[in-house]
Specification:
Number of strands: 4
Structural class: mainly alpha
GO molecular function: G protein-coupled receptor activity; olfactory receptor activity
Strand order of the largest sheet: 1-2
Radius of gyration: 21 Å
Keywords: Cell membrane, G-protein coupled receptor, Membrane, Olfaction, Receptor, Sensory transduction, Transducer, Transmembrane, Transmembrane helix
Number of domains: 1
Distance between the termini: 60 Å
Main location: membrane
GO cellular component, one term: plasma membrane
Order of helices and strands: EEEHHEHHHHHHHHHH
CATH topology: Rhopdopsin 7-helix transmembrane proteins
CATH superfamily: Rhodopsin 7-helix transmembrane proteins
Pfam family, one: 7tm_4
CATH architecture: Up-down Bundle
């Protein structure tokens, strides 16, 4: 281990942490699992990049719903780029080491951009609420400058709340095992390897979960209650179905993001030995949204689907 001296005492930091693939699987299976992982990364990158480029180049899509979708796709691209290449390298080569500071950097980006994704999902819920409940005021409420300010607030909140995480991990000593339980670095996973008091880490981690994902999910749920009330109040059965159909893609994105996140948080905080369910939930939480979101929005959003088909037809011609 690498000893890092401080003024008051001695901190013990490992030179590297060891990442774990899927517990109980041999190296041969890990090697073959790298291929679908690379396919997922290529699919996530291509899908999200396509959505961002379509929205950026088509002026008719410069509306709140699509601008928020472009932000969501950008966040998903960053999350997949931070996690999947290192995981593929782990499965391909079997090299488990990740340098201490590099692990903290990866952890920071994972938590920061996860918080941003949660906030964007909330902004998209608010957009759907205003569009369905107050359709005549939608354009005046969610103007381009307002959308830009929401995006800046999302970025700022994610970075500010996640910024202390690497520093409160660096103040700990790690004199036990340096083997993590996942294929990437998470705050709660690194924290458990410490042999010193982790009260600050536990409290701050819980604060982030409750103040970011907890508050965001509550407001998203409240938005959908109001949306359902507005939809059920429409006189036409066809009109209410068409109105709620605009929320299906967003609802899928919310479920794909929050269900694994809540499960992972509960499993970590309830304690107990690390099991396969820890690893599966963590992988689903980080790997599934970047792959699923562009597919769902590409299939369910008519304007995006039409432009993707036109793009392929132009390339084929």
């Amino acid at each position: 281990p690498l000893l890092v001296k401080t003024i008051n005492d001695t901190l013990i930091h490992p030179t590297a942490f060891l990442l774990v693939g899927i517990p109980g699987l041999g190296s041969n299976i890990h090697f073959w699992m790298a291929f679908p992982l690379c396919f997922m990364y290529a699919l996530a990158t291509l899908g999200n990049l396509t959505i961002v480029l379509i929205i950026r180049t088509d002026q008719t899509l410069h509306e709140p719903m699509y601008l928020f979708l472009a932000m969501l796709s950008t966040i998903d691209m960053v999350l997949s780029s931070v996690t999947m290449p290192k995981m593929a390298s782990l499965f391909f080569t079997g090299k488990q080491e990740i340098e201490f500071n590099l692990c903290l950097t990866q952890m920071f980006f994972i938590h920061a951009f996860s918080a941003m994704e949660s906030a964007i999902l909330l902004a998209m819920a608010f957009d759907r609420f205003v569009a369905i409940r107050y359709p005549l005021r939608h354009a005046s409420v969610l103007t381009a400058p307002v959308v830009g300010k929401i995006g800046l607030a999302v970025l700022t909140r994610g970075f500010i709340l996640s910024f202390p995480l690497p520093f409160i991990l660096k103040r700990l000593s790690y004199c036990h095992s340096n083997a993590l339980t996942h294929s990437f670095c998470l705050h709660q996973d690194i924290m458990k390897l410490s042999c010193t008091d982790t009260t600050v880490n536990v409290v701050y981690g819980l604060f982030i979960i409750l103040s970011v994902m907890g508050v965001d999910s509550l407001f998203i749920g409240f938005s959908y209650i109001l949306i359902l009330q507005a939809v059920l109040g429409l006189s036409s059965r066809g009109a209410d179905f068409k109105a709620f159909n605009t929320c299906i893609s967003h609802l899928c994105a919310v479920l794909v993001f929050y269900v694994p996140l809540i499960g992972l948080s509960l499993v970590h905080r309830l304690g107990g030995p690390t099991s396969l369910i820890h690893v599966v939930m963590a992988n689903v939480y980080l790997l599934l949204p970047p792959v699923v979101n562009p597919i769902v929005y590409g299939a369910k959003t008519k304007q995006i689907r039409i432009r993707i088909l036109h793009m392929f037809q132009r390339d084929a011609g």
